[in-house]
Amino acid sequence: MINLTRPLARQVRAVFRHALGVSPRGPFPAVSLRADQHGLTIRSKSGMAAIERSVPGEYPADEVLVPGELLVDCEGRSDQVVSIERQADGDLIATWQDTNVPVMMRYSPPDAAELGDFPAPPESMVDNPASLLTALRDASETAEPASIRFALDHLELCGDSGTLSATDSRQVLVRCGRSPTEPPPPTEGLQETRETLRSSVSAGSETRAERFPWQGKVLVPRSTLYGNKELQPTAVSIAKTEDWLAIRIGPWLYQVKLGQELLSAAGGGRKEREGLAGPILAHKTLAPAGQAGAGAGPRS
Fold it and tell me: What does the alpha-carbon distance between residue 280 and residue 83 come to, in Å, rounded to a whole number?
């Protein structure tokens, strides 16, 4: 038996929908729940992304694969427990209380092949400030949704310069960070006041905050996940494997497939040399969240 609360089911369903690009009215993918002495891990996967939520604690060891609609059915705001138990015939029984009314639902378990293998996370990740989440949100809003032209629905992250870029061919967002080997900017003696913060942004110390621990450029699909209100501002860590970009946001681990074929298609060409900003004759380099320059940035 595996237990989780109704607010946790609601939170997981909302975040997973954005992470996996699930339509609000479309079918929800299968969800894996694994409990042990280290905690509860809830995860799901699509062809292009994988997402998991870790819940600390000590649980009786068990693992079940449930249909996504189970989370939709049992989610709620009251802090009540949902119990999921596998039956002798293989079906799943979920029980909970809804306004003091007992609810019991039976579900057929999904095929394990529906999820397939989850990508192995990187062995180590590089910590970044919470502002990276805001930068990814702004870049995703700038990129063209579901574009079939080049890489306009992708974000470009350059490890050598720490630069994050996105464009829809009409406007471009370029956010500067710093290379993995560059030390953080000095902070000794800085006053934490609004005026001092403005000065540090102008001097470039704040604009060079993010670090990407790889060489060269990677392309990843835009996502509405980064602007989801369920993700509280927190420290973010990032890394990549051969095929996946991994971003840890508090208790969430989001992995998205790299657009390697897009970079390969541009091999030796103008786009590989100039990046996503290549087709744009003029662009504005943006400061961190709240300091975006005029004439560029996400559409309203």
Answer: 54
For every residue of 87-99, DSSP letters joined together read -TTS-EEEEEEET
Q: For residues 75 and 230, give the distance between their C-alpha atoms in angstroms, rounded to a whole number.
A: 14
For the chain, the domains span 2-114, 126-286
Q: Residue 180, exposed/middle/buried by CB under 10 A (0-12, 13-18, 19+)?
A: middle
Residue 253 one-letter amino acid: L
Within 8 A by CB and 6+ apart from 176, the residues are 161, 162, 163, 204, 207, 208, 285
pLDDT of 68-100, one tens digit each?
Answer: 999 999 999 999 999 999 999 999 999 999 988
Q: What's the CATH number for 2-114? A: 3.10.150.10
Question: What fold is seen in the domain 126-286?
Answer: DNA Polymerase III; Chain A, domain 2 (3.10.150)
d(CA 110, CA 116): 12
CA geometry: angle 159, 163, 167, nearest 5 deg: 125
**pTM for this prediction:** 0.79
